Amino acid sequence: MITAITALFGLAVAGLLLTLVRKDHLLVSHGLGWSVAIILSAMLGFAPGIFDSLATAIGVSYAPILGVSIAIAALVIKALTSDIELTKLKVRHQRLVQKVALLEADLQELSEKPDIQD
After folding, report:
1. Which of 14, 31, 72, 118 is the most exposed place for a label (fewest CB within 10 A)?
2. Which residue ranges make up each domain of the chain?
3. How far is CA 70 from the centre of its chain?
């Protein structure tokens, strides 16, 4: 029964991720990462014993904690990459605002008209 529930959950997560990537709700530039998540979800769903075997091989005494640890690590990495992208976007936005301000100053200087009001 547990295997069936795990398989359904894994397939549901894989299907959801695949749908979100195909409908462009998730960035295609992260396609490789999401593809790995889809494959791991489906694999865990069909063969949950893989984590048990992997945990035994690396010396983890309580196998389910391996999956939890991997999930936490993946979430931390995802949060870090999102913060990096957000920082890049903010810097780009700030530079664009500065360029627009310089262009407005040049335009005002050339046309000798009063400041443009927003």
Report:
1. 118
2. 1-47, 60-118
3. 15
Give the dihedral sign, CA 33/39/45/50: negative
Digit-coded pLDDT (tens) for 26-61: 776 777 777 777 777 777 777 778 878 888 999 988
- Taking each helix axis from N to C terminus, what angle separates 2-22 and 31-46, rounded to the nearest 10 degrees? 160
Sole residue written with tokens 């904690």: 65
pTM for the full model?
0.63
For the CA atoms of 17, 21, 23, 25, what is the dihedral angle to 10 degrees?
90
**With the CA atoms of 19, 25, 30 and 31 taken in that order, what torsion angle do they form, in degrees rounded to the nearest 10?**
30
